[in-house]
Design brief:
The chain has helices spanning about 5, 25-40, 55-65, 85-95, 100-120, 135-145, 165-170, 175-180, 190-205, 215-225, 230-245, 255-265, 275, 295-300, 305-310, 330-350, and strands at about 45-50, 70-75, 120-125, 155-160, 180-185, 280-285, 285-290. It has about 350 residues and is an alpha/beta fold.
Length: about 350
C-alpha cells in the first residue's frame, strides 16, 4: 500500500522470517560461527537460545540455506509431536521410507547416518521452538545423540528455543541430556546503534534510495519501545509507514511512532522491562552517551531529545551501507571467519 509512496519495491518490515533481510550483527555472526563449527566438527548437541522476536527462526533458515550439498538437514519447526509423529517427520525430512515400527525406523536411521559418515557427509537435525519439546521427545533426542563412532558423532542436533529452554535442561531428570550439550550460543537484542542501522538496512534492501525518512528522534523512540527486539521493531516501523502514508507524511516522526505504539498497546518505557526502557551505551566519534532515564521522559523534559539521538548522529548516506556484513559473499565469509577466530581465542583462554 505504501511502497510506491516511499519509493520501495518490497515491504521492508514484514514479520515473515525472510533470510534476505537478515541483519548480521556481531552477535548473529558469532552464532553463525558457533553453529558452523559444531556442524563441521561433529560436536553433537548444540543449544541456541534467544528472547522472543530476536530472529532465531530467521537465523536457522539462513544457516540451512547456506549449507552445501554435503550436509543433509532435517528442520522441525513444530516439536509438539508424539514419538511416532516425530520419527515419521524425521523420515520425511531425510527422504527415508516410512517404517511401521520404531525399532525398524531406528535401524534404518542408523544405517543412513553411518553410510553418510563413511562418505564424508554430514547430517543435521534442527529443532525450532525446542522449549516446547515434550519430555518423551527429549529422551528420544538423548538416545539419538548416541549415534556415533569411536571418534565422532554421526548426528549433529541443534536445539533452538526461548530462554526457558535453559530452565528445561536445569531439571535433574534431564541431567543426562544436559551433559551431552557441547556448546551453548545465544542471540541478543539489538543495541541502540544497531537498531538505527537495522532500520536503514531493511529500507535499503526494500529499494529505498535514501533510507533517512525515519527521523533520528523517531528511531530513538523505536528503540525505547522495542528494546532492540527485531520483531517489535518491524511491527512498529511497518505500522509507522502505513500511518505516515495515510497522513501524507514523507518523514516518520516521533509523533507517528507514539501513535503506533498506542495503537499496538506496547506500553510506556517506564513500564517495560529494564533493558527496554534505557538505551545502551553507544559511541559517536569520541563521545560515549547514555540515554536519559524513562522518568525524565515522563516528566516532560525536552533535554532527553538531544540525548536520545546523539548516538544516531552518524552518516546514514546510502553510499555507506550499515555494518550488516551482507553486502557481498566475501564480506559474509570474512565476518564469519573473524567471529570464529574470536570463538577459538576465548576457548583457548578458558582452557588455560
Amino acid at each position: 500500500m505504501y511502497r510506491q509512496f516511499y519509493g520501495l519495491y518490497d515491504v521492508p518490515f514484514s514479520l515473515a522470517p525472510d533470510p534476505k533481510y537478515l541483519f548480521r550483527t556481531e552477535s548473529l555472526l558469532e552464532v553463525f560461527a558457533n553453529l558452523q563449527y559444531c556442524i563441521e566438527h561433529g560436536k553433537g548437541v548444540v543449544l541456541m537460545t534467544g528472547e522472543v522476536g530476536t530472529g532465531k527462526t530467521m537465523v536457522l533458515r539462513s544457516m540451512l540455506q547456506s549449507l552445501d550439498h554435503s550436509v543433509a538437514a532435517a528442520y522441525i519447526f513444530n516439536p509438539i509431536l508424539n514419538t511416532s509423529d516425530f520419527y515419521s517427520t524425521l523420515a520425511s525430512e531425510f527422504r527415508l521410507p516410512a517404517q511401521t515400527t520404531k525399532a525398524s525406523m531406528l535401524r534404518m536411521l542408523g544405517h543412513f547416518l553411518l553410510s553418510r559418515h563413511q562418505r564424508g557427509l554430514r547430517t543435521v537435525l534442527v529443532i525450532d521452538e525446542a522449549h516446547l519439546l515434550p519430555r518423551t521427545l527429549l529422551e528420544e533426542i538423548r538416545l539419538m545423540s548416541n549415534y556415533e563412532t569411536n571418534r565422532e558423532k554421526l548426528f549433529q542436533i541443534i536445539l533452538c528455543g526461548q530462554p526457558e529452554l535453559r530452565q528445561v535442561f536445569a531439571q535433574p531428570e534431564l541431567r543426562q541430556l544436559k551433559q551431552r550439550i557441547s556448546l551453548r550460543t545465544e542471540i541478543h537484542p539489538l543495541s541502540a546503534r544497531e537498531t538505527a542501522e537495522y532500520i536503514a538496512w531493511r529500507l535499503r534492501v526494500a529499494g529505498a534510495k535514501n533510507p533517512n525518512f525515519f527521523e533520528l528522534e523517531a528511531i530513538a523512540a523505536v528503540y525505547r519501545f522495542s528494546g532492540g527486539i527485531p520483531r517489535i521493531i518491524n511491527n512498529i516501523c511497518d505500522n509507522a509507514l502505513l500511518t505516515g502514508f495515510s497522513g501524507g507524511n514523507r518523514a516518520i516522526t516521533t509523533a507517528i511512532i507514539h501513535e503506533v505504539v498506542d495503537l499496538l498497546d506496547l506500553g510506556t518505557p517506564d513500564l517495560l522491562p529494564m533493558h527496554v526502557g534505557r538505551l545502551d551505551l553507544a559511541v559517536t566519534g569520541s563521545i560515549v552517551q547514555e540515554a536519559p532515564r524513562p522518568e525524565a521522559i515522563a516528566a516532560g523534559s525536552d533535554s532527553h531529545k538531544s540525548d536520545n539521538v546523539r548516538y544516531l548522529r552518524r552518516d546514514l548516506n546510502p553510499s555507506e551501507p550499515p555494518r550488516s556484513g551482507l553486502d557481498t559473499p566475501a564480506s559474509i565469509s570474512r565476518a564469519t571467519q573473524d567471529s570464529t577466530q574470536r570463538f577459538f581465542s576465548r576457548a583457548r583462554v578458558a582452557r588455560t
